[in-house]
Amino acid sequence: MSEARLPEKGRNQEDILRELRAIAAQEDARWETGQISGSYYHAGKEHFGFLNQVYGLFSHVNILQRDVCPSGTKFEGEIVAMTARMLHGDAVKAPDEVVGVVTSGGSESIMLPMLAYREQARAAGIAAPEMIAPATAHPAFDKGAWYFGVKLVRVPVGADLLADVDAMRAQINANTVALVGSAGNYPYGLIDPLERLSSLAVERGIGMHVDGCYGGFMLPWLERLGYPIPPFDFRLPGVTSMSCDTHKWGYGPKGASVVLYRNRALRRRQYFTVSNWAGGLYASPTLAGSRSEGISAATWAAMVSLGEEGYLETARQIMAVADAIKAGAAAIPEIRIAGEPTFCIAFLSNSDKVDICHVNDYLTSKGWRMNGLQSPPGFHFCITRPQTVPGLAGKFLADLREAVAYAKTPPTEPSKSGAIYGGGLASVPPAMIAQFMCDHLDGMYAV
What mean pLDDT do residues 43-71 have? Predict the structure, then answer.
């Protein structure tokens, strides 16, 4: 039923629940196949049923009112502390101390440090601060630059698709306030050379943000499982801030992430305060004002219910599938895997006779939804818990082999595949992309 205006009389609650259950069941059936890349960082319906119960206990609580409901301070303080410990915040020696805040998601966890670095720069007399990021860094850095008036200098990556440290070094000037690296980057799932970036940041006396939104809750456990994960967190002396999403492999509800800082002074730069408002003193640690405590409570519950043992086991299950796919794909000569990924596997063409977009087209016809990439063209398959269903790796590899065979003699019309973040695959001529994206956003609010 479409609702373009408030009904004159409220609808029956059971009728509403029937409609919503039908919608949810239809949409869940799509991702429960395991054929959708990423998107659903799901630890099982029982787990999320538990989180929904926790959320219901605190959904009505405004976390701003901490004097009335001090539990919000407990939940968020412990979320930050557990995340910081996981990312080796304890390796930082006094007088510094790793601290942080809970945000609404990865974008906010990226943007708030940009605000903090801007304010730190202004205090130091830098009126036009700049940050340097590899081309693969998340678009939220562009968004933060747009919001906060920071100049973002994008630097092409090397042939290995990793941040080019020497090229980034060449862009540093008197206005540079921070460098950016990813652990790992979204397009290819690769970890930038963060040790070299850290050394460069220390050498030049500037900040360094590591975007761990994608890998922050997986890489620590992969390292524990014996995978060759290089240091990417606060063990590196140049790292001054990190973003890490609890709502991905932290298996918490959507709408929560953590941003960490190497010291309290830098975190304080992101705070907003008004001292002379008629309504009283006002202070906000993040972009949002009122927030439901239910999300923080459920995030906390997810972390303490899984524990280290639970995170290690889910990482082991995910990597069993990822390793099987990587091994099988390596035997297909017409495609190649980008770099040395872990759980996120990017596929590129290895032959001028195979258009990787036609490979994508075929996979789409078989019910797969990959994340399209551009520059170079390709797609990635991000392995999450839904992909751990038995037999999925074998099914994907069989379809991938058929897709490559199809792409060798494709139809005469252009491929349908393109790259739209969060939107699957679509054919969009370059000149129409900006208009298309704005129309797409308008459509989100159409009835």
Answer: 91
Amino acid type, 343: F
Residues 314, 197, single domain; the answer is no
pLDDT in tens, 289-339: 899 999 999 999 999 999 999 999 999 999 999 999 999 999 999 999 999
Are residues 98 and 237 both part of a single domain? Answer: yes
**Domain count across the chain:** 2
What are the tens digits of pLDDT across the range 238-258?
Answer: 999 999 999 999 999 999 999
Nearest-angstrom CA–CA distance, 153 and 144: 13
Contact between residue 242 and residue 213 where contact means Cβ atoms under 8 Å apart: no
For all residues of the chain together, what is the average pLDDT? 92
Q: Which of 200, 180, 39 is nearest to 117 (CA)?
A: 180
Query: Is there a single domain that holds both residue 236 and residue 263?
Result: yes
Contact 257, 228 (CB under 8 A): no
Give the DSSP H/E element, type plus range, for residue 257: strand 257-261
Distance CA 186, CA 152 (A): 18
Rounded distance between C-alpha atoms, residue 357 and residue 363, angstroms: 10
- Together in a domain, 427 and 343: yes
Q: Which two tokens stand for residue 94?
A: 């006094």
